[in-house]
Prior knowledge:
The protein has helices spanning 4-14, 59-71, 78-84, 93-107, 147-154; strands spanning 23-27, 33-36, 39-42, 47-50, 53-54, 76-77, 117-120, 124-127, 132-133, 138-144. Helix 1 crosses helix 5 (147-154) and helix 2 (59-71) packs across helix 4. By secondary structure, it is of the alpha+beta class. 35% of the residues lie in helices and 25% in strands. 15% of the residues are buried. It is globular, with a radius of gyration of 18 Å.
Amino acid sequence: SMPSTAISCLSARDQIRLNKNQVIDNLQLPASSWRFGEFRLDAARRRLEHNGAQVNITPKQFEVLHLLIRNAPRVVTREEFVAEVWAGRAVEDSNLTQTIFVVRKLLGEQPGGGSWIVTVPGQGYAFAGDLRPETAPVSLPRARLRWWWLAAVAC
Length: 155
């Protein structure tokens, strides 16, 4: 039996309601790595690479960049950063500002000029680069999946 957290994760994350006899035609898993310019962000390994070489990035800096990329091109608010990166703890605005500053410095400018991360005054920050997700959809034609297996893969 699969823990209920896997079921709730699947429901919240993918808005899918499954029962144990449901037939799945195609399963689209979320991307776990992205390319932008000469960079590659690998969420599964928590690694940022530039031309194949690992970039020295702190866990908080990685989480900020990952949150921006996952939500691109949408603006990510300060409240979302605090909730996801700092786990809801009280955080000074300067902590987020400094982290964004350092991530911008690590990334440099886009090939055509301009920052990879833009500030939207009064709203938050957005990733402004062209992203290429690397994880392709998994095709499972007419496969009968056990609900716990699908929940484990999706979470």
